[in-house]
Amino acid sequence: MKKYICDVCGYIYDPSVGDPDGGVKAGTSFESLPDDWVCPMCGASKSDFSVAD
Q1: So what's the pLDDT on residue 50?
Q2: Rounded CA gap, 4 and 49, in Å?
Q3: Which end of the chain is more exposed for a tag (fewer CB within 10 A), N or C?
Q4: Which residues pair with 38 in a beta bridge?
């Protein structure tokens, strides 16, 4: 699965890790995150993320 980077703060969403503090289980793809999920570091929305190289 692809990793995504927050264009605001540089946080990397790694599907193999998920967002345990945000209640997102490991193995959850970025596309499967709820629409109201936000960056755990800065609060940016999903639309502020892009595919990490």
Answers
A1: 98
A2: 6
A3: C
A4: 45
